[in-house]
Design goal:
Mg(2+) binds at residues 17, 205. 42% of the residues lie in helices and 15% in strands. The chain is α/β, with parallel strands linked by helices and 241 residues long. The chain has one domain (11-137, 179-229): Decaprenyl diphosphate synthase-like (Undecaprenyl pyrophosphate synthetase). The protein is globular and about 60 Å long. The structure holds 3-methylbut-3-enyl trihydrogen diphosphate (2 copies) and magnesium ion.
């Protein structure tokens, strides 16, 4: 059977894991690992632009990551601020749009002002959308979405008997109106979703690699894309329609 050329995934989600292990293996501090992880994000943006990709969601800090020592949390947020300060001009000039998905609660006013400024400055950019999932957890997202939806229904006097549809709920997710995830990549050998984009990844293809996030580069991305191209997506139907 002739193989047909498959298209690139529209939306790629990345669980950037392994910064700590990368640092430990080199006798460095965990914070150095996160710094190297930030450089890998930079490379991923370059590769994604070169490949003409549309949407990338990056898991940068989960709602569960608050369990980590306060010194590590501080270093992650300092790096994020530094990342935006040092790369925003480049991001803007290359036509990248920045979005934030996640709860604003618990984020400092400095962090909020940086991500809001990045999103605002880049809002009209069309080449590539990079969605930073920061203080993000799917369960929190779905619960928050559901209560916002219920409030809105109450305000509009919609009967509580009227069933809630998936389409209606999706409008209240942090990621709205991004398309659902086609390809989810997790680095560093773990095979779990860790509360990332659970609703949006319902039919995502899952690519796991042992590569630690700071070592992830163009070659790894291309490997994931070529693996994705070999999947047959059925969405519950049959292969040929
Ligand atoms: C991922 O790397 C980055 C964040 C969770 C912020 P880790 O810090 O989880 O690295 P490992 O899993 O300890 O190696
Ligand atoms: C997931 O990685 C969160 C991010 C990459 C931001 P973790 O390292 O926090 O996940 P677990 O704890 O191994 O599941
Ligand atoms: Mg980890």
């Amino acid at each position: 059977m002739a193989s047909s050329k498959k298209e690139n995934p529209r939306h790629i989600a990345v669980i950037m894991d392994g910064n700590g292990r990368w640092a430990t293996s080199k006798g460095l501090s965990r914070s150095e690992g996160h710094r190297a992880g930030a450089d890998a994000i930079d490379r991923l943006m370059d590769s994604s632009l070169a490949l003409g990709l549309e949407y990338i969601s990056l898991y940068a800090f989960s709602t569960e990551n608050w369990k980590r020592p306060v010194t590590e949390i501080r270093s992650i947020f300092n790096l994020l601020v530094e990342f935006i300060d040092s790369r925003l001009d480049k991001i803007q000039s290359r036509g990248i749009r920045i979005l934030h998905s996640g709860s604003r609660k618990k984020l400092s006013s400095l962090v909020l002002s940086k991500i809001d400024r990045a999103a605002d400055l880049t809002r009209k950019n069309k080449k590539l959308t990079v969605n930073f999932c920061l203080n993000y957890g799917s369960q929190e997202e779905i619960l928050t979405a559901f209560s916002k939806l219920m409030e809105e229904r109450k305000r509009k006097s919609v009967s509580p008997q009227k069933a809630v549809s998936g389409k209606e709920l999706e409008k209240y997710l942090y990621t709205y109106p991004l398309p659902s995830v086609d390809l989810l990549i997790r680095t560093a050998g773990e095979r779990r979703l860790s509360n990332f984009l659970l609703w949006q990844s319902a039919y995502a293809e899952l690519f796991f690699t042992d590569t630690l996030w700071p070592d992830f580069g163009d070659k790894d991305l291309k490997e994931a894309l070529s693996w994705f191209g070999r999947r047959t997506r059925k969405f519950g139907g049959l292969e040929n329609g």
